[in-house]
Design brief:
Strand 3, helix 12 and strand 4 form a beta-alpha-beta unit. This protein is an alpha/beta fold. The protein has a 5-stranded parallel beta sheet with strand order 2-1-3-4-5, sandwiched between helices. The chain folds into 2 domains: 84 residues, Arc Repressor Mutant, subunit A (Orthogonal Bundle), CATH 1.10.10; 180 residues, Rossmann fold (3-Layer(aba) Sandwich). It is 62% helix and 8% strand. Helix 1 packs across helix 2 and helix 9 packs across helix 14. 29% of the residues are buried.
Amino acid sequence: MIFPPENFEQLRQLVIQLKHGDIEFSIGKKSLLALDNMIQEPSLVATTNIVELAKVIKLSPASLTRLAKLLGFHGFNQFQNLFKQKNKITDNFYSDSLNALLNESQKSVKVIIQKQLQELFSSVEHSIGSIDEEHLHQAVSLLAHKHRIFIFGYRQSSAIASILRYGLALIRPNVQMLVQADHGVAIALGQLKKGDLLVVIGSAPYSNVTIKIAALAKKQHCQLMSITDSTLSPLNDLAEVSLNIPTSGHFYANSLVANCFFVESLLSLTAMQLGVTALDNLKQHEQLLADLEVSG
């Protein structure tokens, strides 16, 4: 591990390793908790002074300075710069991705599309090779047998959430999106009960909304399953079961094609586990379509 961490991701990785006991480092429990809280609220750290931050995380300004120096920084200001840099990276995520595409604008359309296909194939192939089979079996079992399932995806991830919700609702009951368009997040969270399953979907740049919803659902003793893009995703720390599917690609936003592939595979595996139950639900759906005189 590099000291001091050179960027926010290195700092977050350090916190994960410290929490899991993967490295030896002399840091008190209170300081580690404060550091973890700061990782969860990067915008707060980036935009507040040391006195204001100390009040929020319940660590004195002097202790914050000592913590920064313990991590190898000259002081709090240098430590805070990592969080300011993280904010800037998040703000520029889409435009930076498009700029990378514009640098290849002289290439032919066919070459660009072929490159997209090659990157997608490599991403899916890598994901299949590295997938945690135990987590996959657990995910299928949860989707098949949990009494109530809620699904949440923010911004672009809402598209994957919608696909998962629609496919799952065809083969079993009690599946719904967590947040409806005309309802607030607080009302939606209030519907969650102990033992419900919440599937959260998110990729870098990770939305604070998604992370907060996952954290609050966990406090309400819901089971969490995450579909995210990396083992370093903050959603992995909150979820009991995680499926990591890369979303990087030759695109100006997150590439969702691999996600669609895996979600369809996940739905097929769930239907296979449900067996006759899934078949009966599909037949009932087909009958309703016939009664409504629509084709799909």
